[in-house]
């Protein structure tokens, strides 16, 4: 392709794949795109292990990492999980009790909560620890998922030959990314999984392309097939940022119970809610997200306290009981089209084939 991002990273197709799964990262990079490992849920030791594995299996192909370095967040290290609001803790416990989900013993609950929170890295302090691990590996891209990366990080990465990008849900976010020296912007429409805004991709992508030109832009949010790649390119993007589509692959990290729920879901089952992290986050609808919309439910806590509440007082109970009604996972509105398993390589090939077919159709239509 005659494409700036392909030239920038030495890749064959401008398909950038966000995933928490190292297998997906490797498979996308080996298929000609660029895999990006999400690090929000891992301990630094696990990240070191995963990056070593990627280095050994990616065949010298480029890959990147996705960090969470927000500008405004309470530091989770300074928050005692035992000091979460009693009313919120009681609400979650009663919700699971009423659903017949067995309680853990006090010792089990305390151990499980602290083990989960030890891998919780959605703060500047935690992100910096993770970043130090990443810089010991031959990564080619760092993407910040919550706000503009510090200028010092951008300069340090550039000195090591690493490109830097950041996600944007509004034009003003993209302009701040450009101002600190980012090499690319990921314009993420509201259709996307995880933390996202409220503007649709069709409107957002060209708006950000125009705002930060000539900086290259990746279109994210609702991309899982070739016609959507073609739409992003037609709207001025240089490539696409995909996350949800990889969840349907055999290489993804999903446990069988969540995979089955995801493959059976419709597009309306990907809800935008603050109940997961305290920030707007699109996730698979479940009994927990529904409960907070009911009369009498408490207001969600600010980030990251809402996430701590769920991790410390609900997640382990739900996962041990395999309580299907409460299982969830971040996923975009594309979930309604994800009704059969595939492989990562097949997804990439299908995207490129449909992209080529779309070009031929447009060529014939436009003359």
TrEMBL record:
- The lineage's top-level taxon is Bacteria
Give the record's keywords alphabetically: Flavoprotein, FMN, Monooxygenase, Oxidoreductase
Q: Does the keyword Acetylation apply?
A: no
Q: Tell me, what's a Pfam family for it?
A: NMO
Q: GO molecular function terms here?
A: nitronate monooxygenase activity
Give the transmembrane region(s).
none
**Protein name stated in the entry:** Monooxygenase
Biological source species: Melaminivora suipulveris
């Amino acid at each position: 392709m005659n494409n700036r991002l392909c030239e920038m990273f030495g890749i064959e197709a401008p398909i950038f794949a966000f995933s928490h799964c190292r297998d997906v990262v490797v498979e996308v990079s080996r298929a000609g795109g660029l895999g990006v490992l999400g690090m929000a849920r891992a301990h630094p030791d696990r990240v070191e292990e995963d990056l070593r594995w990627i280095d050994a299996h990616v065949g010298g192909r480029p890959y990147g990492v996705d960090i969470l370095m927000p500008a405004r967040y309470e530091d989770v290290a300074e928050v005692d999980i035992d000091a979460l609001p009693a009313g919120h803790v009681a609400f979650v416990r009663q919700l699971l009790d009423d659903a017949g989900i067995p309680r853990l013993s006090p010792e089990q609950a305390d151990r499980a909560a602290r083990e989960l929170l030890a891998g919780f890295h959605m703060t500047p302090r935690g992100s910096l620890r993770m970043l130090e691990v990443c810089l010991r590996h031959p990564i080619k891209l760092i993407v910040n998922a919550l706000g503009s990366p510090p200028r010092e990080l951008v300069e340090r990465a550039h000195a090591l030959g690493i490109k830097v990008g950041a996600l944007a849900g509004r034009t003003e976010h993209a302009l701040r990314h450009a101002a600190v020296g980012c090499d690319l912007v990921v314009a993420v429409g509201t259709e996307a999984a995880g933390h996202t805004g409220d503007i649709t991709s069709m409107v957002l992508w060209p708006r950000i392309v125009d705002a930060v030109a000539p900086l290259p832009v990746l279109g994210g949010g609702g991309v899982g097939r070739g016609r959507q790649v073609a739409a992003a390119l037609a709207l001025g993007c240089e490539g696409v940022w995909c996350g949800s589509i990889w969840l349907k692959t055999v290489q993804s990290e999903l446990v069988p119970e969540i995979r089955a729920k995801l493959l059976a879901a419709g597009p309306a089952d990907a809800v935008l809610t603050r109940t997961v992290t305290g920030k707007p986050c699109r996730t698979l609808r479940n009994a927990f997200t529904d409960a907070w919309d009911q009369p009498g439910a408490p207001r969600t806590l600010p980030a990251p306290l809402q996430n701590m509440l769920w991790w410390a007082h609900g997640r382990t109970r739900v996962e041990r009981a395999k309580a299907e009604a409460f299982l969830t996972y971040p996923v975009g509105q594309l979930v309604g089209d994800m009704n059969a398993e595939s492989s990562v390589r097949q997804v990439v090939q299908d995207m490129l084939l449909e992209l080529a077919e779309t070009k031929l159709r447009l060529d014939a239509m436009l003359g």
